[in-house]
Every structure is written in structure tokens, then in C-alpha cells.
Amino acid sequence: MKRTFLIITGLLVVVAILFTNASSDEIQGYQVGDYATDFNLKNVDDKMVSLSNYPSAKGFIVIFTCNTCPYAKAYEQRIIDLHKMYEPKGFPVIAINPNDPSQSAGDSMEEMKTRSSERNYPFPYLRDDVQDITAAYGATKTPHVFVLNKEASKKYKVEYIGAIDDSPREAADASEKYVESAVNALLSGKKPTVKEKRAIGCTIKWKDA
After folding, report:
1. Which of 1, 87, 153, 196 is the most buried (most CB within 10 A)?
2. Predicted local distance difference test score (pLDDT) of residue 11
3. What pTM did the predictor assign?
4. DSSP E strands: which ranges in 38-154?
5. Given CA atoms 23, 28, 30, 33 in this order, what sign does their dihedral have?
6. pLDDT of amino acid 154
7. pLDDT value of position 48
8. Which residues contact 46 (CB under 8 A, 6 or more apart)?
9. Is residue 36 within 8 Å of residue 146, measured between CB atoms?
10. β-strands 48-49, 59-64: how paired?
11. C-alpha torsion 76→80→205→46, nearest 10
């Protein structure tokens, strides 16, 4: 009986080690403190947009989002409000749709144009057709936020990653507004107190391998 217990315990330890290693291998993309490279993606107005198009920006609120996810829809007005609040202060929102349209037809560029027009998006809404930018950032959900701070060297440092706030469904129920707190800290010359919060949303629809 004792021998059986030891064997089972040993197997559980091995499984736990393998799971930990697998999880570590799957963690990719930017971490807080990394520098994000610029991108050049097509906007709903058919123009290409890069971070370098904003020479006077102090930083960016980069949000991977989409048309179809219920969580993305629930956050839509809050994303609009974030841009209206922080674009004049130097932190505009840049929204990127990472979903493969063949997996999610409602996220095609044409559907993005319709959604952007209907909701009067005040920020760029870009398509990551190749999904290389999404992979580089390590975005896994919609919405998934990366707050970037532009340093004197003109490099874009990742200062916050994760959720917009602690209420994925109702804006009125939010008691902690992570993105607002992060950007307010950066505007005050400080570092965000909360640097990461797990993004809650739909999984990104990746292209078939």
C-alpha cells in the first residue's frame, strides 16, 4: 500500500513539473519592462498607421479587441472614453483587431469599417492580418491592453499589461480601473502600482497552422 502511494505521489510530481515547464514555454510576448517595436497596420480608413505617426505622444494605450466578442462589446464605450480622456494628455488609444476573419467572419475589415462608423470610433481601428504583432505582444484575449510609455530615447516601454478594469460586464460596477491608474501614474512621472492584471475576454481566433 505504501509503495503504491509513493508511486502515485511520484507520478503526480512528474506531471506537475511537466505542466509547469509547458506553461513556461507557452508564455510568450512582451513582459512589463520590455520595449515594444513599432508596427505598420491598415486602419479602417485604408491608411497605414504606426506609433511613429504620433511624434508628440507621450505613450499609447494599445488594445487588442474585436467586433464579435461579448466582452469586447461590453468594453467598447469604455475604450472610447479612455481615448477621449487620455488622447488630449498624450496617451491615445490604438485598437487592433487580431482575429482571423476565416475563423470569425464578423471581424473582417468590412465589418470593422461598419462597426467603427456606427459607433463613431475616435481612435484608429487596425487589422493585424498576419497576426505577427499580436504574437509579438503576447495578446491572448479580446480585449487585452498594453500601456506603453515613450521614453526620451523614443523607445516604447511596456508599463502595464492586462484588463481595463475589474468589471468585465458592467462599467458601473468597476471599483478598480487599472488602465486609468496606470496612465495617471505615468503622467505624474511615476510607475503604475498595478503592473499586470489577467485579461478577461474571448480567446483570439488564430489562423490555422
Report:
1. 87
2. 40
3. 0.87
4. 41-43, 48-49, 59-64, 93-97, 125-127, 141-142, 144-150
5. positive
6. 87
7. 98
8. none
9. yes
10. unpaired
11. 130
